[in-house]
Amino acid sequence: MRQLTGKRQGMKESYRKEPATHPGPESCGDIRKDVPEALTGEDAGEVLSHEINTTGSPTLLSEAEGNTADRDMASDPRERRGRRPSARVDVSCAGTGRSRSSPEENGNPVRAAKAPSRNAATNGCGKSEKVVVPGKPSNEGPPSLAEPEEAVEERAFAKRNPNQRSTSRTLSRNHGVSPEVERVRERAKREKGAVFSALFHHIGVDRLRDSFWNLKPKAAAGVDGVRWQDYGRELEANLHDLCGRLHRGAYRAKPSRRVYIPKADGRERPLGIAALEDKIVQGAVVALLEAIYENDFKGFSYGFRPGRSPHQALDALTVGLKGKINWVLDADIRGFFDAIDHGWLMKFLRHRIGDRRVLRLIGKWLDAGVMENGNWKATERGTPQGANISPLLANVYLHYVFDLWAHQWRKRQARGEVIVVRYADDFVMGFEVEDDAVRFLSELKERLARFALELHGEKTRLIQFGRYAGERRRRKGEGKPETFTFLGFTHIGATSRDGRFYVLRRTDRKRRVSKLKELGEAMRLRRHDPIAVQGRWLGAVLRGYYGYHGVPGNSRTLQSFHTEAARRWYRSLCRRSQKKRLNWSKMQLHLSRWLPRPLICHPYPEQRFHDRHHSR
Known about the structure:
Elements: E1 2-3, E2 12-19, H1 36-40, E3 46-53, H2 60-65, E4 104-105, E5 108-109, E6 132-133, H3 179-190, H4 205-213, H5 228-232, H6 235-247, E7 256-262, E8 268-273, H7 276-293, H8 310-321, E9 327-332, H9 336-339, H10 342-349, H11 356-367, E10 370-372, E11 375-377, H12 390-412, E12 418-423, E13 426-431, H13 434-450, E14 461-464, H14 469-476, E15 484-486, E16 489-495, E17 501-507, H15 509-525, H16 531-549, H17 555-574, H18 584-594, H19 605-614
């Protein structure tokens, strides 16, 4: 059997196991033996990272790991003539998806490793990807050494995704993390204090294209009025023009379009909708900066970070509150996104970013201003909420202002246990000793004032909370323990039937009422649509609501929301006409057909928290 070895472009991939880029959540101050990494915020676990060398020659990093070519294999093609291909297994690479590469033949690298797949770590040994053409069986040798009949059967290339280069597990048009971004991430992990002075050249047409496909097609347009569909009609020409303007310095950031959305408390939240080209460039820059800063961010920071969700923050907080916590500080920064100081932000960025072109690009977005009612307004402070880069800049700002300082404070000055969970500008801290809580709150106000920030007076509270809060308040005649709200859930200290303390989470009443009002207004606008159309829409809304609020202990609130939504839909349908009124028996048929029943979608926080960190 002969193997076809024509002119091919080879690609060597080396898989290396290394510490995870996302540190575990710092949910508790005491270090437990079973999950030490998860409770201290240190790097824990292992993930697969990829380094792809498209030139066929080993890199310095791959040589250091021993992933060089097999020099013991015959380099002369004539020495392998008439020999059947043998499967080589590298013991050091077994079970890791890592494969050894073969030398080049006549200047052309020959592919010897299996193509990467989504399960490269578990399916390291699989089908050969080379074309096997029929070959004449050997007539020499004893019958026991004769080649089988299958040796003359032709095989085509193994089925694979030829452009899959990373561990992306979601469906998207791009191919996950590029090798350039991977190298930036590797260096940021190795050298914690390294300053990156050459990043701008990574912003090319391919990166801009990936950023375009990651945008939401139905997103609102900016001041230029260009929508995603319009820009995509001549995508390649537009991207090449945008890339050329970026690299010759002709790119100009456009102001954001100011819009307002209602908040749960009745006020309005200002948003800034960036122009489409600004969104594309911001997405490309965010991919580079995340590769750097995800290695620096603390484990108790959860807001707007890849691979992290609000429910992970809620799980970490619930697990931490079941420890030696007696006091809780529920804090909120007043108008944080509108109060970020541009000067301090640029100073913080220079700690890790030394490329002046990238810093100049970020400065253009900060100074672009906003357009409101046709009038341009300069922005001397803050970042517009709604821009792709705003969440990352906000996390960088709070990383230096709050995270590093709070982490050092609880290690050096706290007398008891201290836990921290932060999601964007909202954070909750738990203290074992009351004196620690009072001192921290006083010093926190001074710390934030240095960087032009302040706590929200109405939303910042220091309350007594924990397993002994109810008993101590009853002794003083102060009634039931106070509660606090975080990420849409009201946290209540409760006791089970067997006397154990646990944290009961219920949907925040203000958010529930606000959502019902929003549903009633939407039903009024859809009143004359067919019932089937309304039913599909309302069913999708309820499934999304249950998907977030369906936590253990919240079933009564979900059932109440389901009942009230059904009543509002019934009243809306009854107002479609004055001739015939819909009776409730027929309405029950519509409800059972279109509206899903309340469902608890999330496991217990302790189970998911420990499973997530034990699996690393």
